[in-house]
């Protein structure tokens, strides 16, 4: 039997990435184009359909060689209905039936997945979680994204909002989060909130080498915090240690919630590296976990980088076919 091939499209606010991936997880082609989101949904949908053609062409294939298309899309969306509801970084997109529009334009069976779920599925299917049955992923970027695979299945939940791990509350009554809750994981441990906590401490007058950095730029980044911590700055060390603490709390909570084999950390902040980020999280999680069983999951970095989105979207198309959804 011929190898089955899938197109994955990762729709982002800045770029659309796409590629052909086969069932052996080999990437056969890969392209990235600007989203030009300011023009609204119609031209973007046109671009996405063109990108499907282009990556098929680049792989030296034709449409008849492709089994299905998977799309990873940001923001609130419904997998079941194939609709983008209202993503914050795509202005003018409201209740857009993206799945069916791409299906109509390409003539291929199409599935729509939340981008965080698609990226987690990518790591599970083709990356750091490959070979496991139970995996949790935290994506540490501007926000904290999440994805849960349990017993080889992607957890979406009744409202399609499952695995919003960034909005699990780890500090009741704590810092306000953009979502309206207080004390969310995201409001402490995302790259942007890590930087913001450092900025606030410097502005409150704490002495730190970060004061000089802040004097030269509008705001601090999480890289500034990591760099200062590596150089021994006490405030930066404390701030980043808190980030690791909250991530360790989140890992232990997920250990007990879904008992995964692996917890995978992805996103821009993993550039902080093993010594600054992974080791402290592992140590803190090992310190705070229970004694009732020896089941702390392996905590590790993701392996697909920015390709996880489109690979996972292709994997989502594979999954939708396996499950008979499309
Ligand atoms: Zn929140």
Pick out its properties.
binds zinc ion; alpha/beta; 10 helices; 5-stranded mixed beta sheet; 326 residues; 12 strands
Give a structural overview.
The protein has helices at residues 41-58, 98-106, 115-126, 186-189, 191-203, 210-216, 222-230, 234-258, 273-288, 308-322, and strands spanning 5-11, 15-22, 27-34, 66-73, 76-78, 83-86, 110-114, 135-140, 144-150, 153-154, 262-266, 298-301. It has 326 residues and is α/β, with parallel strands linked by helices. The strands form three sheets. It has a five-stranded mixed beta sheet with strand order 3-2-1-4-7. It has a five-stranded mixed beta sheet with strand order 10-9-8-11-12, sandwiched between helices. A two-stranded antiparallel ribbon has the order 5-6. Helix 7 crosses helix 8. The protein is globular and about 60 Å long. The two termini are 20 Å apart. The model has no long low-confidence stretch (mean pLDDT 96). The protein binds zinc ion. Zinc ion binds at residues 167, 177, 179, 181, 184, 186. Zinc ion is lined by residues 167, 177, 179, 181, 184, 186.
* Number of strand segments: 12
**Strand neighbour order, sheet with most strands:** 3-2-1-4-7
Major sheet: 5 strands, mixed
- List low-confidence stretches: none
Structural class: alpha/beta
Q: From N to C, what is the helix and strand string?
A: EEEHEEEHEHEEEHHHHHEHEH
What ligands can be seen in this structure? zinc ion
